[in-house]
Amino acid sequence: MSEVVIIDSGGANLASLQFALERLGARASVSSDTAQIAGAPRVILPGVGSARDAMQRLRALDLIERLPRLEQPVLGICLGMQLLYGLSAEGATPCLGVLPGTVERLASQPGLPVPHMGWNQLALTARDPLLEGVHSGDYVYFVHSYAAPVAEMTLATTRYGIDVTAVVRRGNFWGTQFHPERSGRTGAAILGNFLRVS
């Protein structure tokens, strides 16, 4: 059985995420099977593209009601993190509601185009097992046009004109706005920590 099941949410980053986990010694598989996802020791919800398309895909997979009820560690990545919130301003899309709040579009500013693409620094705001060995000032790789506001559940922020949530946690659900599988040693450390959290 796989140690980690990556939900087949579509998109080209699934293979790179699977390879990143396998480099850490994990048995990882990509699946859209509800029973396999529900029975996995750990689950990752990745995502690229629009919130509305991603939610439609999760609905077609019969996962809208099941995902928020998972009790094992769950990690949302990029759009997958945004889908954990109650609402995305992208098309006023209702999401999974694991985290309260609305994901808003980043405001374009001089020198700060949207989407935000590239390396940016983390500022840690709380201690958490997911961030063991990670420090404020570490760089990670972002590709996003929408972001979650900083709130009580925020574990780390990044600044792109304003401070936005880069890492979040509520109970057994974590989220990273950046792509850990593309974030070098810092991203590998975070994925490695996810393999150990309980």
Which key features would you list for this structure?
198 residues, alpha/beta, Rossmann fold, eight-stranded mixed β-sheet, four-stranded mixed β-sheet, 14 strands, 33% strand
> How many structural domains in the coordinates?
1
As a percent range, the share of strand residues is 25-35%
Looking at how many chains there are and whether they match, the oligomeric state comes to single chain
Determine the mean pLDDT. 95
Number of strands: 14
What is the 3D form? globular
Terminal Cα span: 18 Å
The major beta sheet can be summarized as: 8 strands, mixed
Total helices: the number is: 5
Gyration radius over CA: 15 Å
* CATH architectural category: 3-Layer(aba) Sandwich
Low-confidence stretches: none
Strand order of the largest sheet: 2-1-3-4-14-13-12-9
**What share of residues is helical?**
10-25%
Question: Could you spell the SSE succession in H and E letters?
Answer: EHEHEHEHEEEEEEEEEEH
The CATH superfamily is identified as Class I glutamine amidotransferase (GATase) domain
CATH top level is Alpha Beta
CATH topology: the name is Rossmann fold
| Derived structural class | alpha/beta
Summarize the structure.
The protein is 21% helix and 33% strand. With 198 residues, the chain is of the alpha/beta class. It starts with a strand and ends with a helix.
Explain what this protein looks like in three dimensions.
By secondary structure, this protein is an alpha/beta fold. The protein has a single domain (4-194), classed as Class I glutamine amidotransferase (GATase) domain (Rossmann fold). It is built from five helices and 14 strands. The strands form three sheets. Strands 2-1-3-4-14-13-12-9 form an eight-stranded mixed β-sheet. A four-stranded mixed β-sheet has the order 6-5-7-11, with helices on one face. The longest helix is centred in the C-terminal third of the chain and has 11 residues, at 184-194. The chain is globular and about 45 Å long.
